[in-house]
Amino acid sequence: MIPIHKLLRWFSPDVVEDHKSAAAIQGFFQAETRERGKIVSRTEGNNIWTLTGREYLAELIALRASSPRATFRDDRVAYIGLGSGSQAEVANISSLVDPIPYSPGEFLAPTATPATFPASATTSTKTAVRFIREYGLSEISLGYDVVLTEAGLFTDGNPDDDWALTALTGLDSSGDRAPVAYKTYEPITKTTQFTLRVIWEVRFI
Fold it and tell me: What mean pLDDT, rounded, does the chain reach?
């Protein structure tokens, strides 16, 4: 049994105030391979929301000017990129370690639209958004098996052009793309016999 004096610490003014100001963005990543509809492998877990992602949200909710109306940026989360590298899930991640193409020369794969808003058991308010990408048999495994260990979530803005909607999606520009969210995970092998489904959920808690 936990001593009462330890339990009471949770209700001290300092602890309560800390919980009020705690980060309220939670990412949840899930990937699974299937062969003829049957699940072969699955990995899932929470991810890091990077400094790039935090800056994105801060600028997204602010106005540059009210009349005429102008925003700081209009890009939206629109791509998922996968890789075969691994690094600590820390906020200052600037790129994937070892990006891989999902089709010849292309790194960033578009997510399905429209994005969906999963229902909550306690409220009808939209407090989460889900991004999905379905990779076909011939995607990622371009004639050979590929071991996947990392993933990033990206917007459709160009960081070299004030986030204009001209994102570079090719593998040759992957080193310059910082994800808004990043996940490293246990290896998943993608073959030409498997499809791959990635679900990335961002929750505001």
Answer: 89
